[in-house]
Amino acid sequence: MSQTLPSAGEGALTHAGTPKRAAVASFLGSAVEYYDFFIFGSAAALIFPTVFFPSADANAAIMSFATFGFAYVARPIGAIILGHFGDRIGRRKVLLFTLVLMGASTFVIGCLPDFHTVGWWAPALLVLARLCQGLSAAGEQAGASSMTLEHAPDNRRSFFTSWTLTGTQGGQILAALVFIPVLALPDEIKFGIGWRIPFWLSAVVVVVAFLIRRTLHEPPAFEEARKNAEIAKLPVADLLKGHWRDVLRVICCAFIAAVSTVFGTLAISYAKTVAGVDGTTTLWLVVAANIVALGTQPLFGMLADKIGRKPVFIYGALASAVLTPVFLLSLESGSVPLMFLAAIGYFSGGYAAANAVWPSFYAEMFSTKVRFSGLAIGTQLGFLMAGFAPAIVAAMGGIKPGGWVQISIFTAIICAVAAVSALTARESFRIPTKQLGLK
Predict the structure, then answer these.
(1) Residue 135 near residue 77, CB atoms below 8 Å
(2) CA dist., res. 275 & res. 332, Å (int)
(3) Burial 58-82 (b: 16+ CB within 10 A, else e)
């Protein structure tokens, strides 16, 4: 079976401009979805312990982080459901549905009563809305990555799919920028109506992204499979029969996503509690690192198209393990310039490598007929680690003086699991798209 790549233009002439449009649609859709997802993370660290729980102490922080993690419980269920329909009826329809569900559930969160109004019904309703967010997010990255990869030229798949995850960085930047002025409000406003505004604003950006995404057509690989009656009747059954090893591999590799929650959610609480760093400063750290990642992630994607997915992904995992204690100690140093330098190096120069490459790396393990399901189920099971990382580390005593040790050890272990799992994968960057996932 030949593994020689076509020239840069081969296979793209009949769909000129489509790879770019697919990448742009994936970027914008992911930015909107993960704006919604990340404002919840910021609120879980800085707002929800006061608003939704009876006392703003360490136990309230743990419970608040647990609500953040509940979305990751829903994500595997959503992955099975949305993966099935994504492989059966198409990527585009599922991606439109995920946008609407995420937007609606996020808007509802902004309308919820607080604990002092309805008691424990308040956190219960918060968890329910968070579960809906998780169901939506389960299909977003898998669908966007599948669609973009299947539209891309064979020799530039990693570059184009990197824009899906770069969109998540855009969403995190927007979420942080929206929350910064909220934190500057007086407490009675901030914990009253102020924190709700970022959640309500999601309705506007969801409408914009929906209008953009609905113009994109299904990728040629999926249309060809549908034309040739190669659509799986039960994608999950075919997936577990022919790709169960790849699903396990993706689950373990996807542990790397915990680095993102350590950086974007846990570190905010750690910096505030241990080092007395105000929430505005830590949010600016997130903004700065993600802005730089907007540039580094496409570069890492281009590198992976030249030298392969595995070396770039493994570098990102190992660099994250090494740089976690550096970043955490910088938060304790009191030096704001050092904090920014460490944050940018850690996230944009380390984790961004794995983050940029995984959409192509994981998706290329599966054939067209089960790609959406394989990518969704594998990543969402692996992302459970990311969802509960803040609560796990908080329960281990990581949110106290010296807690950087527990956080660093936890991060090093998950990064090592991801790196070792990646080593067992087949290198796929020279395999034509039509032959991906074929044994």
Answers:
(1) yes
(2) 5
(3) eebbbbbbbbbbbbbbbbbebbbbb
The reported pLDDT for the residue numbered 439 is: 62
Q: Render 378-392 in DSSP notation, one character per residue.
A: HHHHHHHHHHHHHHH
Torsions phi, psi of 364, nearest 5?
A: -75, -5
Decide which of 188 and 314 is more confident: 314
pLDDT at position 225 is 78
The Cα 286–Cα 340 span in angstroms is 9
In one-letter notation, the amino acid at residue 21 is: R
**pLDDT at residue 35, rounded to an integer:** 84
Residue type, 345: G
Q: Count other Cβ atoms within 10 Å, centred on residue 229.
A: 6
Provide the residue type at 81 as one letter: I
- Burial group, residue 305, by CB count within 10 angstroms (0-12, 13-18, 19+): buried
Residue 30: which of 258, 206, 181 has the closest Cα?
Answer: 206
C-alpha pair distances (Å), 347 with each of 319, 321, 324, 352, 409: 9, 11, 9, 6, 17
**Rounded Cα distance, 13 and 76, in Å:** 37
Q: How many CA atoms lie within 13 A of 423 on its CB side?
A: 9
- Give the span between the Cα atoms of 274 and 350, in whole angstroms: 25
Helix locations, 308-363, DSSP H:
309-333, 336-343, 352-363
Determine contact, residues 268/158, Cβ cutoff 8 Å.
Answer: no
pLDDT tens track for 196-225: 999 998 888 788 778 877 777 787 778 887
Instruction: Judge residue 143's burial from the number of C-beta atoms within 10 Å of its C-beta, 0-12 exposed, 13-18 middle, 19 or more buried.
Output: buried
CA angle, residues 300, 263, 401, in degrees to nearest 5: 145
AA letter at 270: Y
Please give the single-letter amino acid code of residue 386. A
> Could you report the per-residue pLDDT of 353-412, keeping only the tens digit for each?
999 999 999 999 998 889 999 999 999 899 888 877 877 887 877 777 888 888 899 999
For residue range 105-134, what is the model confidence (pLDDT) as tens digits? 889 999 999 888 988 898 899 999 988 888
Best CA proximity match to 262, nearest among 122, 116, 396 = 396
**For residue 256, what are the contacts with CB-CB under 8 A and spacing of at least 6?**
313, 316, 317, 320, 351, 354, 355, 358, 414, 415, 418
CA–CA separation, 205 and 214 (whole Å):
14
